[in-house]
Design goal:
The complex is a heterotetramer of chains A (427), B (257), C (370) and D (286). With 427 residues, chain A is of the alpha+beta class. Chain A has helices spanning 43-47, 55-60, 67-82, 88-119, 124-130, 132-153, 173-176, 179-198, 240-243, 269-276, 282-290, 303-323, 373-391, 397-409, 415-419, and strands spanning 4-8, 18-25, 28-36, 162-163, 166-167, 212-215, 226-229, 234-236, 244-248, 255-259, 340-348, 351-359, 365-371. Chain B starts with 6 loop residues before the first strand and ends with a helix. In chain C, strands 1-11-10-9-8-2-3 form a seven-stranded mixed β-sheet, sandwiched between helices. Chain C has a four-stranded antiparallel β-sheet with strand order 7-6-13-12, with no helix packed on it. Chain C has a two-stranded antiparallel ribbon with strand order 4-5. In chain C, a hairpin with a 2-residue loop joins strand 10 and strand 11 (189-196). The radius of gyration of chain C is 22 Å and the shape is globular. The termini of chain C are far apart. Chain D has two domains: 14-108, Translation factors (Elongation Factor Tu (Ef-tu), domain 3); 115-281, Nucleotide-binding domain of ferredoxin-NADP reductase (FNR) module (Rossmann fold, 3-Layer(aba) Sandwich), CATH 3.40.50. Chain D contains six helices and 15 strands. Chain D starts with 18 loop residues before the first strand and ends in a 5-residue tail after the last helix. The chains are: A alpha+beta (427), B alpha/beta (257), C alpha+beta (370), D alpha/beta (286). At the A-B interface, helix 1, helix 4, helix 5 and helix 6 of A face helix 1, helix 2, helix 5 and helix 9 of B. The complex binds flavin-adenine dinucleotide and iron/sulfur cluster (SF4) (3 copies). One iron/sulfur cluster (SF4) binds next to helix 12 of chain C.
Chain lengths: 427, 257, 370, 286
Amino acid sequence: MNNRVIRVDQLARVEGEGSLIVKVNDGKVADVKLRIFEPPRFFEAFLRGRKFTEAPDITARICGICPVAYQMSSVLAMEDAMGLTVDDQIRQLRRLLYCGEWIESHVLHMYMLHAPDFLGYEDALLLAKDKPELVARALKMKKIGNDVMNIVGGREIHPVNVRVGGFYRVPRKEELEPLVERLKWGLDQAIDTAKLVSTFEFPDFETEYEFVSLRHPEEYPLMGGRIVTSSGLDISIREYEFHFEERHVPHSNALHGLERGHGRYSVGPLARFNLNFDRLSPLARQVAADVKIGPVMKNPFKSIIVRAIETVYAYEQALQIIQAYEPPASPSHAVTVSAGIGCGASEAPRGMLYHRYRVTDDGLIRDAKIVPPTAQNQPTIEEDVRQFVTKFAGLPREELTWKCEQAVRNYDPCISCATHFVRLEIT
Amino acid sequence: MPPKKPKVAVFKFASCDGCQLSLLDAEDELLLVAGAVDIANFPEASRRVLPGPYDIGLVEGSITTPHDVERVREIRKQCRVLIAIGACATAGGIQALRNWKDVKEFTRTVYASPEYISTLDRSMPVGSYIHVDFELRGCPINKHQLLEVLNAYLNKRKPTIPTSSVCMECKLRGTVCVMVAQRTPCLGPATQAGCGAICPTYDRGCYGCFGPMENPNTGALAEHFEELGESRQDIMLAFRGFNAYAEAFRKESDAHE
Amino acid sequence: MYIIDSTELHNLMEELIKRGYLLIGPTVRSGAIVLESIRTVDDLPRGFGDEQEPSHYSLKRRNDAMLFGFVVGPVSWKKFLYPPRLTMFKATRAGKSFTIAPEGTDKNRKLAFIGVRPCEVSGILMQDQVFTGGKYVDRAYKAARDNAFIVAVNCTVTGGNCFCASMGTGPGATRGFDIALTEVLGGGKHYFVASAGTPRGEEVLGAVTQREATEPESRSALDAVARAAESLTKRMDIRELPQLLKDNFENPRWDDVAKRCLACTNCTMVCPTCFCSTVEDATDLTGMHAERSRRWDSCFTLDFTKVAGGNIRPSIRARYRQWLTHKLSNWMDQFGTLGCVGCGRCITWCPSGIDITAEVDAIRGNSVHA
Amino acid sequence: MKHETIQPPAAPGEGLRLHTVTVKKVIWETDDTFTLQIDLGEMGETFSFLPGQFNMLYVFGLGEAAISISSDASQGGMLAHTIHRVGTVTTGLAQMKRGDVIGLRGPFGTAWPITAARGKDVCIVAGGIGLAPLRPVMYAMLRERTAFERIILLYGARSPLDLLYRVELEEWAKEHNVEVLVTVDRGDSSWKGYIGVVTSLFSYLKLDARATVGYVCGPETMMKYTIDEMERRGLAEDQIYLSMERNMKCAVGFCGHCQYGPEFICKDGPVFTLPRIRHLLDKKEL
Ligand SMILES: Cc1cc2nc3c(=O)[nH]c(=O)nc-3n(C[C@H](O)[C@H](O)[C@H](O)COP(=O)(O)OP(=O)(O)OC[C@H]3O[C@@H](n4cnc5c(N)ncnc54)[C@H](O)[C@@H]3O)c2cc1C
Ligand code: SF4
Ligand code: SF4
Ligand code: SF4
């Protein structure tokens, strides 16, 4: 029980390639390494010299799980650089698209990636053998999210319809209407899902976090707004890089995000929920009350419940946006190219995603910086595992290993995202 | 005894995960697929890993490190049928844009300890290192096409994956040509069908994410782009996209360098 | 000849709806005039015209209220008679055998085509020849065709790529319609001169209007069509054309056009007479169900002529030559007419702007036998 | 043109209807070529074909292939097809077992005009699988052996192992007075016969040019050389018939794939008189 090494050579049910190594010496955790060995893809390097209009399509390819997040952060950053604010109709349509991604991604994570841990299955397909109706329902719920992206974005993975200034074509009312009944159904299922996942057995584990998320004046955060932290920081998105930085650690191809003067921090559902509980819809708050969670929630394993509540919110928002939908007169705003620097941030399902671009006056990208949520969470994930192993060192090896994996999966880490951002500073 | 189900494995190299996610996105068919095959190795979806050999291996992602090369060779040995899925695996993907740059230099300037980072000069398609039985195009692949390919191999027939242009799909779908009616440059006439011509249907030009079609006439298309007022640089960038390193597109972009 | 006032055109549409027809007609979408299901006169492109050049199409506003003041758009009527995709049958395994369930097309679906241009009427007649005129009959086509009611509209405006007069197919329709209309607008009047071409056309027309056209009214209509004929700028010289192309199987022009042709298949997809198709066989994951479907194909694809030993037409040069020669030469041997109606769609919708009339001229010019 | 190929009538619409028929036997002729015997069942009562015609054979889920009928047209109820395994459908057919069911549409196309050869010499030249559509011709003529003068069969295959119908070839020669000359591209130690292309066999023959009808089927180049050889020996061009092949989807003239200049191989062919297509033969990429 004294010296041991916990290894998970290939982390499963996460997006991308990573491994976890925990070294325990004399019953104490000596080292935790979330190794990300997925090779870097140098996005920020080859964004240079591309047209600013290409950013949403190119950056989407960083991650097939949350392409909309990349598209949204990039168009917001570009619009910031060009001094453009889109009107509310287009903004709502973007939110609708984003809700589609939240639904798809959250349902995928809850049922296909995370729930099997709680229910003791190796994957959702094995779970489907015993509980076919549960998995069938999940697939149906997820498909609604995908269809929202299909209709608004043209396809669910790497939508084609997003552009700086708006969309290429906006959907007709008749195209969206068939979604209404399905979204209503999905909303009911999401409420039920919250109830279901709240009955899971959660390890008795809480820890202190510095939460970081966007905050919008009226809405639960999806796009834009300000950046707030649980320690009271409240800054504009443009100020992000004054307060946050990334460091390269040798054991990972992903950079580690750190808050200056604070160290590690956490983004994602837990952060959003704890910092923006008051911005949730009354229904979503009610569901939270019913399943007895509220801020401040510090058990990362319970992030699955928060995802369920965010899913409730996403279905509800999607429904409202469609019900109020009137196609805008023009699918996009004209963009006047001007040199400048722009920053944009939005809330990917996994947490805040920050983009910054410098654009030259001929509309080419001079340089780009992209900070994905998993990079920001990496130090926190390692810390969670460290504390967890310290507390539960007595568990049998098999179980402890599985639980450690689960502790990583709490963050729904997207390793593909995290590694695709090795920045190249050429002097 | 029911007949043994074919074992299917999914492998990932440098990629965005989107292509393998297509399998999970096939909501209506996923459980049918799971019933028809034994998903033996699919880390994105399961912690269960059954040892090879596998009947069908789906390989996503491009080869970018020396370790990748070894691994993909090993995977080839393990798979009876090996199918490369997506632009990364079939053409090197968007990350092949680095093939025009000096990557070693990049790495040295970026990493504090460059010895930890091991990359090849180029991001290459899987097929440049091993024999591939079928290449399924797309960035991302189309999930219906993925199901069709799986289905075809399970039923021992040829997959119905046309290699003709996006234009054909565009017309089959009844979309109004954006290049003719709106003078929007469109790569459709040189790009392989498969996406369902979504871009033109959403009022924009095709950006070539399914790679070059069967013997494309990229030169004639580039000329037409010029007539539409595109600059040399625009044309270079248009061909140097998600399938930049696919031969026909590479040559055309180089010609406009 | 009868008169339908422009304000009463809806009576014709309603009469057809009443008789169980679904109306298909021109309407504006995505910057073009396409053929889609319509319900009322308001769905028609009132006040719209179009401008067409090789590889160029644009809608423009007319300064009048013409309902049919444009020419042919990207969609041809063939898609309603000969659909882009059609399931031919479904089969289900049963032990060592299988059962086949043919997919009948909906025999009861009745379509009324509103605004079929004379060249397009000819196009339909040509496809009739292909699918119903020989030893074998395409039942799905025949059923759809028997159920189609054709309201032709003679052309009083012409487009930059129209050359119907050269092909003898327009701008006025002489046969192949149930009802033919000519739109007349001027002198404060806006009406249609209508005539019936079939007994059922007669019947419908009779239910819509009783007012016979006066001599000046009919003359205005004829004049409008005659003016259109004069305004045609594009021509194709079809003298001895079938033989000319046979003699010019080798001609430098084929190399020239091969440089420009993208083999994108657009010309064949938009052509109202092109009829090539392929079949696709599918199975489901269990291997228990199979399906065979047919979809439009094109002689510009590589698969088209693949055989076990190789490919018959690997070069784009040979594929373009096949297309043009089929239309303007072999068609004559096969069906007794040329295979082109002069609608100009292949010119407008070719991204490369390849102009069939110019290619013919060039070949004529280069011809060893010219 | 004195002699046209025969165009049997077809019931309207029939061409697209698929019938299910039962496999009776699979006989492997060579490593990659087999003969599929089919029991027509009830359909046998109405099904009749002429030598040279073909069927579209459908394998469940895999698709269709055009395959000539290689059996005796007088044997109602039973059909044979000799098939070279080259791709999906032909491989599917190769895996059939007795009792399996396949789909069949047909028969299609024109036939060899056997009556045109009555009272004359017949020179049949076949290359590879091209012998299959000519076998029904042999059967028909042998049934009335005396109605024809000389019957000559020149047959070329890639190697001795690729020869089709070996037993029958011998039988025809021995028992029916057919002049059978066989050659292979590549011999082996057991091969005592001719080596070389099929046209080289002409040098062992004397033909009565004015009284000989020629039937040719094989790869296109082989047919071209054969025609040259026949004409050099004075055969009239309208006495020469050949069977063509192209990619084919519908077999009824709708799909457009099999066009050969103005001809549709499926309905104007596959058997053509030479004058009808001679101007097409030399055209590359037609
Ligand atoms: C009138 C006619 C009669 C024929 N008779 C016979 C016969 O008696 N015995 C025999 O073995 N074969 C015959 N063939 C050829 C046979 O049809 C093809 O070999 C077969 O279609 C290949 O199908 P497949 O699915 O096995 O091959 P595929 O999987 O389709 O692939 C093999 C290759 O053949 C191509 N191909 C597709 N259709 C045809 C076609 N119709 N002809 C040639 N190549 C094609 C494919 O594109 C591909 O390149 C005949 C063809 C015709 C047109
Ligand atoms: S829009 Fe693009 S893909 Fe569609 S027909 Fe035009 S050029 Fe081809
Ligand atoms: S060939 Fe061209 S002009 Fe002639 S009918 Fe077809 S599309 Fe119209
Ligand atoms: S002629 Fe024009 S439309 Fe036709 S295939 Fe060639 S480029 Fe395409």
